[in-house]
Amino acid sequence: MKNKLKYIVILGLGSVLYTSCNRDLLTPIPQTSVADVSAFSTSFRISSQVLSLYSNLKGGNLYGGRVVIYGDIRGEDFINITSNLVTSSDVWNENPTNSATAILGLWSQAYVTIDACNVFLDGMATTGTAVVGAATAANYIGEAKLIRALCYYQLLQYYARPFADGSGSKPGVPLRLTPIKGTGFSDLARSTVADVYTQILKDLNEAETALPLTNGTAYNNTTRAHRNTAIALKTRVYLSMQQYANVITEANKIVSATAPFTATTGVAHALQTDITNVFKTPYTTTESILSMPMTVTTGDNPGTQNQLCYYYYTQSTTPGTAEFNLNTNGIIGNTGWTATDKRRTGLTFTKSDGSRYVSKYITPSPYTDYVPIIRYSEVLLNLAEARARTIATVDPQALALLNAVRGRSDAGTILAPATQTALTDAIMLERRIEFLGEGLRAGDLMRLLQTIPAKGAAPTKAPSDNGYIWPISASELALNRLCTDN
What we know:
This protein is mainly α.
């Protein structure tokens, strides 16, 4: 069945699942209840609950836009224009407080989504599996576990020390794996970073075996999880943990040994010949492993001041609403990014005043650009980096993967680094170019315990500096007596 993922509509149909789950609330722990039996009494109602999980995931404070934006603007490639705290000038300045909009909003939406997953998994265990049958139930449960894993992964990137700092021994976040059943469930200590990563990988491993090889259509393969989605996300998770051998093992499941690099099992992922196709209608290319769809339906788009286009785009000749433009001392000014590269000519532009902007997201209000979560090019570069960091030469496959990504946008440039270090540096530079505006930069710096560079008036943030990771949400600290601040 073709699922047009109008998530907010489906969320309304599935609202019997929980009593209060407003994506705009700053409360970190939603006042929810265990699912009523009727919520899992029919196949339609159960499928509605699955789609409601995606609706929560694409809330404005998560993959409606903001979690991507924060990952970009904490890095050095963007300059804040408006100095507006509501639109994250404090995040850019590296000084948000416990009660900042970003701190409260991301924490809240992530835990709202996690609790929705927990409620769903509980309902499937008690009632739902018997209604839809084991095979369909496994698919749905796999989706819920993947969404939960993705939320916990993002929480770790902002509110916890990188895994490399003490091999995951530092405080992570509260690990909630059962539904909130009413009052008295708030108190829960923070698990270690390693323990949260262990749960993330457990969820993704179980999702890999439970999810279908394909969802049947290009739309559903882009907007709902399948087996390769779980594998792709594991390459990101293991890269964040610097477990490079595991990155290679996972990536080899869906990347052929030689060019042209493709996934030969499951969904047939491959690079697009023209990268700009990824960011335009219909957004459902084989490169797009998981994206959040947006529509013109009221409520089924990111909402006010959350949208990627709102933050990054303005018209080339007239004033617009962009909150951030490109730092001339950042990646846009790097001579290694050639003037003829399609990512420069087709996915950025220059206004008449000389300021530069990202143009990956350009649809006007109500802002229906899909939000990318993970693309096949990331899997290729994850694999390239893992091989480059573990093989003490210029690894031929790592170099071929790097040139595959570079070559489809800049065919005139063939990279030929002479040393292992030069190869690794070239891959990291390619990541900055390829994923500009997609939220990966801060995570790339922090997983390697590197200093976040200064940009404009914003200072550097060294790994030892206060603010290298975010403070815990003030709402969580007020409700959870066992939670400690950073």
